[in-house]
Amino acid sequence: MIARNNEINLLLEALATYPAVGIIGARQVGKTTLAAMLTRKWSGPVHHFDLENSEDMARLFDPMLTLKELRGLVILDEIQRMPEIFPALRVLIDKKLDDLRFLILGSASPQMLRQSSESLAGRIRYHRLSGLGLDEIPSGQSEQLWLRGGFPLSFLAQDDAKSFEWRKAFVSTFLERDLPQLGINVSSTTLRRFWNMLAHYHGQIWNASEFARSFGVADTTVRQYLDRLTDALVVRQVQPWHENISKRQVKSPKVFICDSGLTHALLNLPAKHDVLGHPKSGATWEGFVIEQIIRLLRADESECFHWATHSGAKLDFLHVRGSTRTGFEIKRTSSPRLTRSMRIAMHDLKLKHLFVIHAGEHIFPLAENIKAVPISRLSETLMGYL
């Protein structure tokens, strides 16, 4: 088991300020394990309800009756199974009981947990839990993290074959059981085909018309499929950045499978040599690095963009926080070079810094405020940036 101390500390800080904190993340990403780790550092009583357990569901048949007498930390696991509990939580939170906190675990985005956004607005802080990150694994294992992905049971598997077997099983279970439980009423066969096609499209600009033609449905229908998988936290849409400059800019999102290990499973790439020999190898590495950047910067979706012009200039990832803009180019090479596109991005976007993340070993400057950074030094570089 890998101790996720940074995540625990962030949650403890949030619980000191907010009466309710929500941990959201894909199934099997480690939410329940993280909550158990947190309880070891919690000084007061802890009450745990697993809403996939019929006995706990029965105990919460009348949630107000059960919860109003509790004090300390109340953990509600798989909250999307019982959205009707949120009004009761709002009433209890509004009593402003200093000795009562709620830790809510869910396998869907806040947008999908519509009841929480309506009932707990201003009372809850969400924390998105991704898979294991570069700052949590032993030094020198970044390539294994890329190949296997960040799901703990996949990364920690006995060997690559066991890891691949786990990921293939996850995809099937997720499509056949988990998505219907989230209220997504699309056949598992259709979503499997869509997800597989999306894996081949990984890292590209979204083109609804192309997908719609393949499925023989309307553009709006395939857009709904994309949004459903995004809400289930297995797909990421990186929105385009555009502003008033004298260039025509791309205004569609880039799409990624959030976990590189799942991408490799969907592409049926069980081993390292399969991944390295596949045309999407560079794209899956780009997606992996972007997820690590977002995680290390604790960036929310409103801060994350890509940028591209119709004349060919582009930037893989743009982070905007306040008035500060930081760019990232991602190159799976050991010797990245300065490109014209990088210079255009620096000038047109008025970047404070541009980091070129690469697969080599050394940090070195490419130009003023443009620095090449190896993936192995990404954590320390971004911690300095923060």
What layout of secondary structure does this protein have?
Blueprint: H1 5-17, E1 20-24, H2 31-39, E2 46-50, H3 54-59, H4 63-67, E3 72-77, H5 86-94, E4 100-106, H6 114-119, E5 124-128, H7 142-148, H8 152-155, H9 160-181, H10 188-201, E6 204-205, H11 208-215, H12 219-231, E7 235-240, E8 254-257, H13 260-266, H14 272-276, H15 281-297, E9 304-308, E10 314-321, E11 324-331, H16 340-349, E12 353-358, E13 364-367, E14 370-374, H17 378-385
Parallel strand pairs: 1-4, 1-5, 2-3, 3-4, 7-9, 11-12, 12-14
Antiparallel strand pairs: 6-8, 7-8, 9-10, 10-11, 13-14
Helix proportion of residues, in percent? Answer: 40-55%
Radius of gyration from the CA trace? Answer: 22 Å
Distance between the termini: 28 Å
**Low-confidence region ranges:** none
Name the assembly state. single chain
Shape: globular
Structural class: alpha/beta
How many strands, which pairing sense, and closed or not: the largest β-sheet?
9 strands, mixed
| Strands in their spatial order, largest beta sheet | 6-8-7-9-10-11-12-14-13
What is the count of DSSP helices, taking H or I runs of 4+ residues? 17
How many extended strands? 14
Estimate the mean pLDDT confidence.
92
- Domain count: the total is 2
Question: What fraction of the residues are assigned to beta strands by DSSP?
Answer: 15-25%
